[in-house]
Design a protein that fits this description.
Shape: globular
Oligomer: single chain
CATH topology of one domain: Immunoglobulin-like
Number of strands: 47
CATH superfamily of one domain: Carboxypeptidase-like, regulatory domain
């Protein structure tokens, strides 16, 4: 670490150039109708006092804006004032902003301009509870987020760290990460993470760089009617437009690899492109003696993402987008046979895990009139997760003992119609059709004779299914303003899976009441459902009838998992950019797969990943309830902070009808995020910040000493299922970054440190057959430095 700090200091460039400036441009539209707003006042909130008006196309441009962190405000009669959070403007990269104004229902005499009051307001105006928007800047400036929305979410209320620091699973309010859904440009997409695992929404890091992100939404409950196939939360991601007037490029090189981006106009002022490529390997960190996964583990990933806007005018908008990622993780055996431990299975194993995904699509928006528009999106996408495990014998001969694949290709389409019927009533409806062109699920395991040999005759083909199917979703929602302070949203969602003819009809309702210009109370109720991991339907059982082998799929008819959400929210925002929020919530789960044996307490959502690999039924129930609290200061006066605390209970009910804590019943999660910027002469800025995570540990079942002594392996006391907790999780992350500006060149030298105290958090339990006791295993990474140099030109 000392060497890294010295390198960081020496790399800081110092210069004597004068004050630099840059251009801020953008477009202002009505949030509901997407119509351009002409004549809106746009103000750069700096000492320069720069301002302009939007033209006949709703566009604006302000030149000679001083570089550094700036904010912008937009005002127009009859609309709520818009106030941005601080964004970074550098000498090499102009900023283009898409700003949406929401029509005001408050009497003009009541309007108070509140600095930062619009910051982190959801992009989806019908998301009235448990939702906040986030920007690419947040994924950059929050310590150890490494431009990953999944890791950024750890700073938000109700979100817990997964069991492994190397993974970005989003554990929401005691739910498994399986319950969350990812959406890109209005289309549901497969798990968009490198090193993805089946039966989860997480992995190692997202396959798209945050440099492509426009402002996006993250929901942890009470979602509106347009979201389906999710029971815990939604990450609704949008790509930004490339620069419409100038070509701009970015190169980022660091300990994790390279990150390249380019953007610019195709036709000046009318169309643009934005492309990003990343390649990463852990080889540099490994050479520094830092092993994120293990000493004999190698992994690498690369991805490519793009967004191309071809037309953007008053009549229509057309764009093409895409993303694709390749990743592989390789667990190597000990190279020399003589050095392999006969009691350690990993010394003899050669394991490869591939995880690939991609999507390419187009969106088309047509404005029917000034009060309605139609939007269509179509995308071709695929995902591939494969495991191939070999074991080596004393002669280095290899035998496969685990062969598994989860492959899908899809053609997905989305159609949305938005109509502002009156000044106070609007309707939004849509259809989502997901045609799974081909699926291929396969899992075969072979029992070992001993630690380095397998019994080929004891092969178990647990999962085997291929073919095609589809899913259909339809929703409708209406929003009515009930006077100047109250809005009511009512809708419904329909989800159908033809594979087994199961469906769900889901009512959604929410209410928002503005008590005054600073305080808001909101309520939401909804029924939600989610399709099981597709491989779960193809667990197979083979029976011999006479001379015939008959195959059956006992889980094929399982219904959708369902969840009811009830959320009550209170929000208080001040004119100084401070915000306090509190949310009480209750979630009821049912139709959860469980074992049909009352002595077996299997409940699918206790798993951190995977799916049922046995004959199950759908009688499982569960409930989560708690309180989320947050105090936040939006980025102003060079400071921001976010303090969150969540206190909750999470229970499940298996076949025996008794209540037990779930694996993710941490009892509490908390986070403190703080950042400060220091400005110096010659357009130089030093940024420093940290994040503290302090959570209750995941649950485990205490040891059944007598049964474990007989079997020689860990056997849990099921009468005390999940009654014990792993020690509390504690981690401090830190960030320091130095920004500088030159004519047409800007740089950012940053050092993020995950787990700066190198605290070893236990991640699970193990059993010692020698002492017949449990011990806590450590699979967290310890201190991880991420040094990077970014140059814009």
């Amino acid at each position: 670490m000392k060497q890294l700090f010295i390198l960081f200091c020496l790399a800081m460039p110092f210069g004597v150039m004068g004050q630099q400036s840059q251009t801020v441009s953008g477009r202002v539209t009505d949030k509901i109708t997407q119509q351009t707003i002409v004549g809106a006042t746009v103000i750069i909130n700096s000492e320069a006092g720069l301002a302009t008006f939007t033209d006949e196309n709703g566009s604006f441009e302000i030149r000679e804006v001083p570089v550094g962190r700036q904010t912008i405000s937009v005002n127009y009669l009859g609309y709520q004032n818009y106030q941005s959070e601080g964004f970074v403007l550098n000498s090499a990269k102009a900023v283009y902003l898409e700003i949406e104004l929401l029509e005001s229902t408050i009497d003009l005499s009541e309007v108070v301009v509140s600095a930062g009051s619009n910051v982190n307001t959801p992009i989806n105006e019908l998301s009235v509870v448990s939702t906040r928007s986030f920007s690419a800047d947040e994924t950059d400036r929050i310590a150890a987020s490494v431009n990953d929305p999944g890791r950024l979410a750890l700073a938000y209320p109700g979100v817990a760290q997964g069991s492994d620091d190397n993974e970005n699973d989003i554990i929401i309010r005691g739910n498994s990460s399986f319950g969350m859904m990812w959406r890109l440009e209005g289309i549901d997409i497969p798990n968009p993470n490198h090193f993805a695992r089946p039966g989860t929404s997480g992995g190692g890091i997202t396959v798209f760089s945050a440099q492509l992100l426009s402002r996006s939404d993250f929901s942890t409950g009470g979602m509106p009617a347009e979201y389906g196939n999710a029971i815990s939360g939604v990450m609704d991601v949008h790509f930004r437009k490339g620069n419409m007037t100038d070509r701009q490029h970015r190169v980022k090189v660091g300990l994790l690899g390279i990150d390249l981006a380019t953007e610019g106009p195709i036709k000046k002022g009318a169309s643009s492109y934005l492309v990003n490529y990343r390649y990463s390997t852990l080889g540099i960190l490994t050479n520094l003696g830092i092993y994120l996964v293990g000493e004999r583990v190698t992994n690498e990933f690369q991805d490519l993402s793009f967004n191309v806007v071809l037309t953007a005018n008053e009549k229509s908008r057309l764009s093409f987008f895409g993303l694709g990622g390749l990743s592989q993780e390789h667990y190597n055996p000990v190279a020399k046979i003589s050095e392999r431990d006969s009691t350690d299975a990993s010394h003899w194993e050669d394991r490869i895990r591939d995880s690939n995904m991609g999507a390419v699509g187009t969106t088309y928006t047509r404005f029917i009139n000034k009060k309605s528009y139609f939007k269509a999106a179509v995308a071709l996408m695929g995902s591939q997760i494969e495991f191939y495990y070999d074991v080596l014998d004393q002669m280095d001969n290899r035998s496969n003992y685990h062969d598994e694949r989860h492959n899908e290709s899809r053609l997905v389409s989305s159609f949305t119609y938005n109509w502002k019927v009156t000044e106070n009533f609007r309707v939004k409806t849509g259809l989502l059709y997901n045609y799974i062109l081909n699926y291929d699920f396969y899992k075969k395991t072979i029992q070992r004779q001993d630690i380095s040999n397998v019994l080929v005759e004891n092969a178990n083909l647990a999962i085997n299914g291929s073919g095609s199917t589809s899913t259909i979703q339809y929703y409708v929602q209406g929003s009515q303003n009930l006077g100047s302070r109250t809005s009511l949203n009512v809708g419904g969602h329909f989800l159908y899976l033809p594979l087994n003819d199961t469906y769900s009809v889901e009512p959604r309702v929410s209410l928002r009441v503005r008590l005054n210009t600073q305080q808001t109370v909101s309520f939401a109720y909804g029924l939600y459902s989610k399709i099981l991991p597709m491989a779960a339907y193809f667990y197979q059982v083979q029976d011999t009838v006479g001379s015939q082998i008959q195959t059956s799929y006992p889980n094929l008819g399982l219904p959708l998992i369902k969840s009811q959400h009830l959320v009550l929210s209170y929000d208080y925002a001040t004119a100084t950019g401070l915000r306090f929020s509190a949310e009480m919530y209750y979630q009821r789960l049912f139709n959860v797969p469980i074992s049909g044996d009352s002595t077996d307490l299997y409940w699918m959502l206790n798993e951190r990943s995977s799916f049922p690999e046995t004959d199950v039924e759908s009688g499982g129930k569960g409930e989560n309830y708690g309180l989320d609290l947050a105090v936040e200061k939006f980025f102003s006066s060079k400071v921001f902070f976010l303090l969150t605390g969540s206190f909750f209970q999470s229970w499940f009910y298996p076949k025996d009808g008794n209540r037990y804590p779930t694996t993710f019943a941490n009892d509490f999660v908390s986070a403190l995020t703080l950042g400060r910027e220091f400005s110096f002469k010659k357009d130089r800025t030093l940024q420093a910040g940290f994040r503290v995570l302090f959570n209750g540990g995941n649950r485990y079942t205490p040891l059944d000493e007598a049964a474990s002594l007989i079997s020689g392996t860990y056997v849990g006391d099921e009468s005390q299922t999940n009654s014990a907790r792993i020690p509390n999780y504690f981690r401090i992350d830190a960030r320091i970054a130095y920004r500088f500006n030159r004519p047409n060149l800007a740089g950012n030298l940053s050092l993020d440190i995950q787990n700066v105290l190198n605290y070893k958090n236990p991640s699970g339990i193990g059993y010692s057959s020698d002492t017949h006791t449990l011990f806590f295993r450590n699979h967290t990474s310890g201190l991880v430095p991420v040094l990077a140099m970014q140059v814009d030109f």
